[in-house]
Design brief:
Elements: H1 4-18, H2 25-29, H3 32-38, H4 49-58, H5 73-76, H6 78-88, E1 119-128, H7 141-155, E2 164-168, H8 174-182, H9 192-196, E3 208-212, E4 217-221, E5 227-234, H10 238-255, E6 260-261, E7 265-266, E8 279-285, H11 287-290, H12 293-302, E9 305-308, E10 321-326, H13 334-354
Antiparallel strand pairs: 1-5, 1-8, 2-3, 3-4, 4-5, 6-7, 8-10, 9-10
Helix pairs in contact: 1-4
């Protein structure tokens, strides 16, 4: 049973949320009925409904407002997670099943911009969680350390162009820190949304960064997710970037079992990042299309692309450079998610050239 103090916090939080003009998906789907059905439930890791919703209660301006404190939460608190997942992931219903992992034929992709006229850089990332460990809010200091050891010893076994160095955040020298900041590799302690979700405890214990010598392959350990695996390089050669990611993920997977759910795909801390968890993006200059925002948005929505400013969400396009990525991560394969972005960017470049 959930203790009285937690129930009291839940009731107070529920009232605060309902009395607010919050636009979050949490507010939209946490009805009294759902709340009453879930407030006494607990996962085997001891997570309650409060652990899932506290960030959204504290930050009423959240877009989503909910995190999963452990992999089980997606099942135990399904009455709340399912409708939020369906809303965010364009109608991925509770009866739908995410397809099996399929990286597809890497060779069918190519370089989107061989002349380097438009694309500044290309990046593909995915998130993974280690089986048998809860997510951030439930992790103990000892578990953080144990996970860091597993990750760093696994990554030190990588070979070829993936070979590199693991830098723990704990005890990091000022020089290394500055170098990682200059490379845009260093992650900071979580924002207020993650802080409120208790995702930043025992900082910087267990957190670390791995990168290869060419700085085209990067792994974040215990930032928002257990693992963020990232492949990137300058220019538009998506095939090369994607191939590197696929090779790395397959290699890491042989040594570390990942949390996976038959219906939802790969599980991570945030319900916006399930299924393939793949985000393929380019930094791209489209000066003519930038002047015709409506046309840009029209093509983007046709190919399910997300258009952001240069530095990601809620930022401006500096010097006409946009960050454009695939929007869909669930209900389609890894290959299809990346191919959709590939086709969309090819179309945008074609239109830019014709204007």
């Amino acid at each position: 049973m959930v203790d009285a103090a937690t129930i009291e916090k839940l009731e107070a939080g529920f009232s605060k949320l309902q009395g607010s003009d919050s636009k979050s998906l949490l507010k939209k789907y946490l009805t009294r009925e759902v709340f009453d059905a879930l407030k006494n439930k607990k996962t085997s890791f001891g997570s309650t409904l409060l652990d899932c919703i506290q960030s959204g209660i504290e930050n009423l301006d959240s877009g989503v407002g909910i995190y999963a404190p452990d992999a089980e939460s997606y099942t135990v608190f399904a009455d709340l997670f399912d409708p939020i997942i369906e809303d965010y992931h364009n109608g991925f219903k509770k009866t739908d099943k995410h397809p099996a992992k399929n990286w597809g034929d890497v060779e069918t992709l190519g370089n989107l911009d061989p002349g380097s006229e438009f694309i500044v850089s290309t990046r593909v990332r995915c998130g993974r969680s280690m089986e048998g460990y809860p997510f951030n809010p439930c992790l103990t200091e000892a578990q953080y350390k144990e996970m860091e050891d597993k990750v760093s010893s696994t990554l030190s076994g990588l070979e070829g162009e993936l070979k590199g160095t693991f830098y723990p955040l704990t005890g990091m020298s000022k020089e290394t820190q500055q170098q990682l900041i200059d490379d845009h590799f260093l992650f900071k302690e979580g924002d207020r949304f993650l802080q409120a979700a208790n995702a930043c405890r025992f900082w910087p214990t267990g957190r670390g960064i791995y990168h290869n010598e060419n700085k085209t392959f990067l792994v974040w350990c215990n930032e928002e997710d257990h693992l963020r695996i990232i492949s990137m390089q300058m220019g538009g050669d998506l095939k090369q970037v994607y191939k590197r990611l696929v090779t790395a993920v397959n290699d890491i997977e042989k040594r570390i079992p990942f949390s996976h759910n038959d219906r939802l795909g790969f599980l991570t801390f945030c319900p916006t990042n399930l299924g393939t968890t793949v985000r393929a993006s380019v930094h791209i200059k489209l000066p003519k299309l930038a002047a015709d925002k409506a046309k840009l948005e029209e093509v983007a929505s046709k190919y399910h692309l997300q258009v952001r400013g240069t530095r990601g969400e809620h930022t401006e396009a500096e010097g006409g450079v946009y960050d454009i990525s695939n929007k869909r991560r669930m209900g389609l394969t890894e290959y299809d998610a990346v191919k959709e972005m590939y086709d969309g960017i090819a179309e945008l470049i074609k239109i830019e050239k014709s204007l």
